[in-house]
From TrEMBL:
GO biological process, one term: photoreactive repair
Source organism (scientific name): Cucumis melo (Muskmelon)
Protein's recorded name: Cryptochrome DASH
NCBIfam families: crypto_DASH
Task of the protein: May have a photoreceptor function.
């Protein structure tokens, strides 16, 4: 029997849908999988037991809500996280430069811009450098899947700002050229933005700040906030902290003395800091200054990328509306928060973990809003280890962000924060077999195929493929980290490079140096081989206990002949490293 997946784009369906009643609020990215033999529409139900015979067909949308349900969730959430009280406002025009904070709710930069002015101009710059190449190995800096996700985030941000009486100006080019010229044209007194911590982003901030200093605002300009002052001045550049759950100013230590052990960090912040409430803005923020051309959300073609299509696995929808809907779906509708701690190490389907990371990385949702929702859930339903554990994981995210402040560029260097000297290979063939999912180890290959097909991989999968690349293959960990940078929807420099340095044993904490044995991981986390059979259909015909060890007959020859000892460790930990060492070392020039 032949199966096929039929992907129907929204634009091709739109003329037809418009003729139907009650379809005015349909959203893009509707994906329908059709089982061609029976014409039965198959939509993967994440909470049902996954049947690997049908799994080759299934694509599921995250969040899995219907458009009407999503609209009503977003409306409710916007009401809950907005303020009804009056605010005293400033004068003139302020600009908000959106970067990795593509949201309206709990956005302090937007709040400060609004409160300090009579008119706010929200701006996003499509910076060509984000679509260049990675630093050492020249992979695409932003792969098509993440680009698509960001484009959807921008479309949603524009919609949500418009609903609040504002709009989003989208311009193509470098922020250091766009923002000063906008500030000059509008006489804006301040440019607000969310603060970043890694050097590529800091470099752009520095250039923006330099550019703004060259702008001279006329003291008599009515648009200027300080019209009363007689001295000519430049627009101010104000950076606002906003990426973490705990605010950097509330930490009980200076970031230079951040504990090097996660547990010490966590215990200390839990005991001594409060998580701030979300910032609440009124429902109406407009009108914005008058702009002739607001620009449009870029197409993937315009970014020089092929539009991707997710034919299997999870298809994440970008934007704040989708993020709020996912919280509702995961916490309230499916009640999965209650069991997160037991399910979080899964690998298959949308519901074993929250899947918040792509929205957190793009800033479509703030961790503080997730925190408030967890507390609300605890009050309304129950507090248990699972509700706590989501916060526990978000503290890991905070920790990697603060570590990037403490350790700076060493996070990207071969020796990592501890400047560990070890020899790595850059064997192209080995690396490509890992990247393309051709190592001959189903658990590795399935995970790598999921990554390139969907832009997502579970935390369990990430730890396993990282360990395999660096410990079994002995490959330069930065090759893996840069490939993740290309592919991940949730790519975040701090979490990505922080986790890779841990995986490679060069992180700040020497005790975080773990080897993941493939047989043991397979037995514990995919005992029936469902996950590998989903991504590698050729394994489906095998009995479940053979799917992880198919031998050469059905599968690629294994590229690294591991000799597993009793504990599932290779007999010599340095086996692969010695065998493959000899590749050219990359020059350590990153960032
Ligand atoms: C090699 C490697 C690379 C990684 N690269 C990234 C990355 O670029 N961006 C990214 O967001 N995460 C990264 N992670 C962390 C983690 O794998 C993902 O955050 C998680 O899988 C996302 O799925 P989720 O949202 O369902 O997580 P959940 O299990 O539901 O956790 C909730 C949230 O906690 C945070 N979190 C959980 N685990 C971690 C962790 N180990 N480090 C930092 N934050 C964590 C995430 O924000 C996540 O959304 C990486 C992990 C490894 C081992």
């Amino acid at each position: 029997m032949n199966y096929s997946t039929l992907q129907i784009s929204f634009s091709s369906l739109l003329p037809l849908l418009k003729t139907l009643p009650n379809c005015s609020s349909l959203k893009p990215a509707i994906q329908i999988s059709v089982k061609s033999a029976s014409r039965r529409i198959f939509v993967m139900n994440s909470s049902s037991k996954l049947d690997s015979r049908s799994l080759s067909l299934s694509t599921c949308q995250v969040p899995g809500l219907e458009p009407e349900e999503m609209d009503s969730v977003v409306e409710q959430m916007f009401r809950r996280y907005s303020s009804s009280s009056g605010f005293k406002r400033g004068k003139g025009v302020a600009i908000v430069w959106f970067r990795n904070d593509l949201r309206v709710l709990d956005n302090e930069a937007l709040y400060k811009a609004w409160i300090s002015s009579e008119a706010v101009l929200p701006v996003y710059c499509v910076d060509p450098r984000l679509f260049g190449s990675t630093c050492y190995f020249g992979f695409p800096k932003t792969g098509a899947l993440r680009a698509q996700f960001i484009v959807e985030c921008l479309a949603d941000l524009k919609r949500n700002l418009t609903k609040r009486g504002l709009n989003l100006l989208i311009q193509h080019g470098k922020p250091e050229e766009i923002l000063p010229s906008l500030a000059k044209a509008l006489g804006a007194h301040t440019v607000y933005a969310q603060m970043e911590t890694c050097s590529e982003e800091l470099y752009v901030e520095k250039m923006v700040s330099k550019g703004l200093k060259t702008v001279v605002l006329s003291p008599t300009s009515e648009k200027s906030a300080s019209a009363k002052s007689s001295a000519a001045r430049s627009p101010t550049f104000q950076l606002v902290w906003g990426t973490t759950m705990y605010h950097i100013d509330d930490l009980p230590f200076d970031t230079n003395s951040l504990p090097d052990v996660y547990t010490q960090f966590r215990r200390s912040v839990e005991a001594k800091c409060e998580i701030r409430d979300c910032i609440r803005l009124p429902a109406l923020l407009g009108p914005p200054p008058s702009i002739d051309d607001w620009g449009s959300v870029p197409s993937l073609d315009k970014l020089g990328l092929q539009p991707p299509s997710v034919v299997k696995g999870m298809r994440f929808i970008g934007g704040e509306s989708a993020a709020l809907s996912r919280i509702y779906e995961y916490f309230w509708k499916k009640d999965l928060l209650r069991i997160y701690k037991e399910t979080r190490n899964g690998m298959l389907g949308p519901d074993y973990s929250t899947k918040f990371s792509p929205w957190l990385a793009s800033g479509s949702i703030s961790p503080r809003l997730i925190h408030e929702e967890v507390r609300r859930y605890e009050r309304k339903r129950e507090a248990n280890q699972s509700t706590y554990w989501v916060l526990f994981e978000l503290i890991w995210r905070d920790y990697f962000r603060f570590l990037s402040v403490k350790y700076g560029n060493s996070l990207f260097h071969l020796g990592g924060p501890r400047k560990v000297e070890s020899k790595w290979s850059q064997d192209k063939n080995l690396f490509e077999s890992w990247r393309d999912g051709r190592t001959g180890y189903p658990l590795i290959d399935a995970n790598m195929k999921e990554l390139s097909t969907t832009g997502f991989m579970s935390n369990r999968g990430r730890q396993i493929v990282c360990s395999f690349l660096v410990r079994d293959m002995g490959i330069d960990w930065r090759m893996g980290a840069e490939w993740f940078e290309t592919c991940l929807l949730d790519y975040d420099p701090c979490s990505n490079y922080g986790n890779w340095t841990y995986g490679a044993g060069v992180g700040n904490d020497p005790r975080e140096d773990r080897y993941f044995s493939i047989p043991k991981q397979a037995q514990t986390y995919d005992p029936e081989g469902e996950y590998v059979a989903y991504w590698l259909p050729q394994l489906r015909m095998l009995p479940k206990d053979k799917r992880h060890f198919p031998g050469k007959m059905l599968y690629f020859e294994q590229v690294v002949p591991l000799k597993f000892g009793d504990a599932g460790r290779p007999q010599s930990q340095d086996f692969a490293r010695r065998k493959t060492f000899g590749g050219k070392q990359a020059k350590d020039f990153r960032r």
